[in-house]
Amino acid sequence: MKLVVMKFGGSSVANAEKIRHVAGRVIEKKKQGFQVVVVVSAPGDMTDDLIEMAAKVTRNPAPREMDMLLATGEQASIALLCMSLHAKGQAAISLTGPQAGIFADTDHTRARITQIQPKKVLAELAKRRIVVVAGFQGLNPNSDIATLGRGGSDLTAIALAAALKADLCEIYTDVEGVYTTDPRVVPDARKLEEISYDEMLELAGAGAQVMQGRSVEVAKKYGVVFAVRSTFSQAPGTRVHKEVRQMEDVVVSGIALDRKQAKISIVDIPDRPGVAARIFSALGKAGINVDMIIQSEASDKKNDISFTLSEGDVKKALSALRPVKKALEAKDLVANNNVGKIAVVGVGMRSHPGVASKMFQTLADAKINIQMISTSEIKISCVISRDHVDQAVRELHKAFGLDKK
Amino acid sequence: MKLVVMKFGGSSVANAEKIRHVAGRVIEKKKQGFQVVVVVSAPGDMTDDLIEMAAKVTRNPAPREMDMLLATGEQASIALLCMSLHAKGQAAISLTGPQAGIFADTDHTRARITQIQPKKVLAELAKRRIVVVAGFQGLNPNSDIATLGRGGSDLTAIALAAALKADLCEIYTDVEGVYTTDPRVVPDARKLEEISYDEMLELAGAGAQVMQGRSVEVAKKYGVVFAVRSTFSQAPGTRVHKEVRQMEDVVVSGIALDRKQAKISIVDIPDRPGVAARIFSALGKAGINVDMIIQSEASDKKNDISFTLSEGDVKKALSALRPVKKALEAKDLVANNNVGKIAVVGVGMRSHPGVASKMFQTLADAKINIQMISTSEIKISCVISRDHVDQAVRELHKAFGLDKK
Questions:
Q1: Extended strands (E) in A287-331
Q2: Could you tell me if B130 and B270 lie in one domain?
Q3: Is residue A372 a part of any domain in this protein?
Q4: For chain A, which end, N or C, has fewer CB atoms within 10 Å of the first or last residue's CB respectively?
Q5: Which residue in the set A56, A65, A75 is minimally distant from B94, CB to CB?
Q6: What three-state secondary structure class fits A53?
Q7: Which residue in A54, A69, A76 is closest to B50 by CB distance?
């Protein structure tokens, strides 16, 4: 008997009507002859509501207590979904993360899954029940509940699919799948039938937030083939799996964009060894993720170093860097919030040269100035003025023929 | 070091402000040199909200899933209270019922506590932490969460106090303690300084809903002395403990009342053995708790049997009895919803005769007709017309001198 793991996000179980709809979809799958494991997130805004309750009590909640609080959201979801399955005549049982044998580390509010012992899940499947598992949570070595942080429910689904050697894993969400680019920017963006793990990772990293990169990484590591599908349509969605030869025929699979970037420059740093290490260890200690880094060529024994980061981290970064600037005797420390990032992604570009030059030419023709460039094997990213992001995406989408199948 | 168990109900932790207030009271106690274990209920209306969510999904939620859902309320409370204790600089840790070592049976939504293994609680107390335990829940033999039903958080507190051999157990609520009668009916009702377990049980059974009888029974069985106190005042409340000699000086401790009673009569039953058994086994099978029973003297080989029950059970009782009435060839089956019950309670009445006659005379003087009478060692109950309940309570309160200390 084939086994499927189906994951539904919070917006899919936001109220009773939606919960009944999800129950219906789950039962459809069961009737197709599958053993079904369902992973659900907390209903709708419940997680936000709980965070707000905590904020009213204290500004600095202890992470362990935050997890104790937040884990209740998914626990409510699994109970409600099971009730709906029962009401439709389907045998089903809910399991919290700990009950499902999901073990995590002690890094509260952003724990990693360390192990899955799905004995109880398998036993319940053997009783012909649908097993509904709380996403986003596991049991840590102190026997405490730990939550898995952003994208935690996707991670639960992928990891369970790996542990159960599931034949299929489906991530249900409120979009139809993975698109060539953001359909709000390019109306004729096309849904992709399939995409490789690496492309999906680069798209996520470049701000295409269908799924967090960490879940895709786990899927890649354990070879879990999954589909991104819509809760509210029967369309097949996008299959995500390992790269196959024929994928190389498609040079560029998608265009990613991220408007919420900022750029910080440290100007005129006397050229000494260890300068970059000094700067980025200060940022690392402050918990700031840096994206692109550019060091200008030294002229007159002075350097400029620029990097991009999330807009929300700018303040924290500037206070971490002020003492560094002073110690390095740099002339200036400048932040620019008016930038955005675009990227073309595709495994085909490995075997098809000329993608970079085509990208740069397209932007040049549109009179869009490139501020920074970064490349990986299957991605070319550019930082440009934020005002030009939408136009750049539209031009690139056309230039690489993504509107045509 | 002395150990106290403090229990706070849902209205005491209904919002952030109240949670901070409770945290303050808990810390006061800690500063008095106590080791402190706190038991809390779900915040305010959360349990009702969860029940409503379930009702929107299905009319018949499976009890196991209901427990999975409802247990989240107390879990939210313990996390929020700990956050508040931390914000006030106090070391504290939250434990779910299962984490606190509270074991229950498999009777979901109304489980009994079977055992407490407070190893974790003791270990955390030894670290000088305040331990905050979720009321109303335990782990059952299937490793599922089971809730303890009405009054479950009181029960958790009393049972933990017994298991930990606590020096003190305090039940904080929104009233100042146990009163001689309902202060809404008799404005000069007096708060009792102390009361025996048995009196408390009889008062609860007669509708004085400060606490469920089951918690008092467990306290009596394990000799747990507890106080009923107000969350919002420093008044000492009412101490509940085993009967001591001097209590007998007080003949009557309180007057209980219950307006939500009903009376059912089966009229003109041919006098045969086994009639009563037939009637009350039918009611037992329907899950109906019967309170008082009267069988009239047989005249002309015919009997009447009347009994009282909760108003809410009348419909169910009538459908259970219709076939019995037919089988017994009784003449009539009559329900009367317009009745109420009053009772005088006091351990002193064992050694002071004349309480019953004083009660009946008081009611007679007020021209209140008594429909049924029932007595126990420390209680005399009368069923009267519902319209007369308030007046009867006022007259009896005066007649037994309960307004004077």
A1: 290-295, 302-310
A2: no
A3: yes
A4: C
A5: A65
A6: helix
A7: A76
Cβ distance B270 to B299 under 8 Å? no
Q: Which residues 6+ apart lie within 8 Å of A171 measured at CB?
A: A7, A154, A157, A211, A226, A227, A228, A229
Q: Rounded to two decimals, what is the model's pTM?
A: 0.87
Q: Which residues of A touch B83 (CB under 8 A)?
A: 54, 57-58, 61-62, 65-66, 69
DSSP notation for B251-291: S--EEEEEEEEEEEEEEEEE--TTHHHHHHHHHHHTTPPEE
pLDDT, position B348: 87
Q: Which of B123, B156, B174 is the last residue of a domain?
A: B174
Looking at the DSSP bridge assignments, the partners of residue B293 are B307
SS3 A266: strand
> Which among B329, B327, B324 has a CA at the least distance from the CA of B284?
B324
Q: Which two tokens stand for residue B339?
A: 């009745």
Number of domains in chain B: 2
Q: Which domain holds residue B394?
A: 255-399
Which of A15, A80, A93 has the CB atom closest to B54's CB atom?
A80
* Both tokens assigned to B83: 């956050």
Question: In this structure, what DSSP letter does residue B351 have?
Answer: T
Amino acid making up residue B405: K
- pLDDT reported for residue B205: 64
Residue of A19, A21, A40, A58 to mutate, testing the B interface (most B Cβ within 10 Å of its Cβ): A58
Inter-chain residue contact B53 with A75, CB threshold 8 Å? no
| Contact B127/A at CB under 8 A | no
A232 located within any domain: no
Are the Cβ atoms of B15 and A72 closer than 8 angstroms?
Answer: no
CB neighbourhood size of B279 (10 A): 23
Domain assignment present for B220: no
**Chain A residues within an 8 Å CB radius of B57:** 16, 19-20, 80, 83-84, 87
Beta bridge partners of A7: A39, A171
Per the domain annotation, does A228 fall within a domain? no
Nearest-by-Cβ selection for A65 from B79, B99, B143: B79
Domain match, A158 and A270 both: no
| CATH code of the domain in which B305 resides | 3.30.2130.10
Give residue B175's pLDDT. 87
Q: Kindly state whether residues A37 and A165 are assigned to the same domain.
A: yes
Residues of chain B with pLDDT under 70: 205-209, 297-299, 405
Residue B187 burial class via C-beta count within 10 angstroms: exposed 0-12, middle 13-18, buried 19 and up: exposed
Q: Which amino acid, A372?
A: M
Q: Are residues B169 and B293 in the same domain?
A: no
Helix (H, G, I), strand (E, B) or coil at B143: coil
* Gap between the Cα atoms of A38 and A27, Å rounded: 11
Q: Which residues of B touch A84 (CB under 8 A)?
A: 57-58
Quick check: ipTM above 0.90? no
Residues B170 and B261 in one domain: no
Does A86 contact B at CB distance below 8 Å?
A: yes
pLDDT for the residue numbered B209: 67
Residue A317's pLDDT is what?
95
Cβ–Cβ < 8 Å for A165, A177:
no
Q: pLDDT class for A89, splitting at 50, 70, 90?
A: very high
**Residue A74, Cβ neighbours under 10 Å: how many?**
31
pLDDT at A121: 98
Do A69 and B57 make contact, defined as CB atoms within 8 angstroms? no
Could you give the C-alpha distances from B239 to A124, B93, B159, B206, B226, in angstroms and in order?
49, 28, 17, 19, 6
